[in-house]
Amino acid sequence: MGNVKSIENAVESLPPMELAEFRRWFAEFDGNAWDRQIEQDAASGKLDQLAAEALADYRAGATRQL
User: Fold this and answer.
1) What does the alpha-carbon distance between residue 58 and residue 22 come to, in Å, rounded to a whole number?
2) Tell me: the pLDDT tens digits for 4-52?
3) What is the pTM (predicted TM-score) of this model?
4) Can you tell me the distance from the alpha carbon of 37 to that of 47, in angstroms, rounded to the nearest whole number?
5) What is the DSSP letter of 14?
6) 11 and 22 in contact (C-beta within 8 Å)?
7) Where in the chain are the domains?
8) 9, 6, 11: which is closest to 22 by C-alpha?
9) What is the sign, positive or negative, of the torsion defined by CA atoms of 7, 10, 13, 17?
């Protein structure tokens, strides 16, 4: 946890412009990590049951338009 605390301290000490730059970078980094995880889960079949349930609900008319 020492590394996490040092990162927290470094982020807290950033000037506003650098903090904004870091936030943009981290949002992109985090989004890419999420995308990779979803792709892995889909490829491994982890989402198959959820997709089947969603399709069954749709076919049964148990959904609503967003």
Assistant:
1) 41
2) 999 999 999 999 999 999 999 999 999 999 999 999 999 999 999 999 9
3) 0.69
4) 11
5) S
6) yes
7) 14-59
8) 11
9) negative
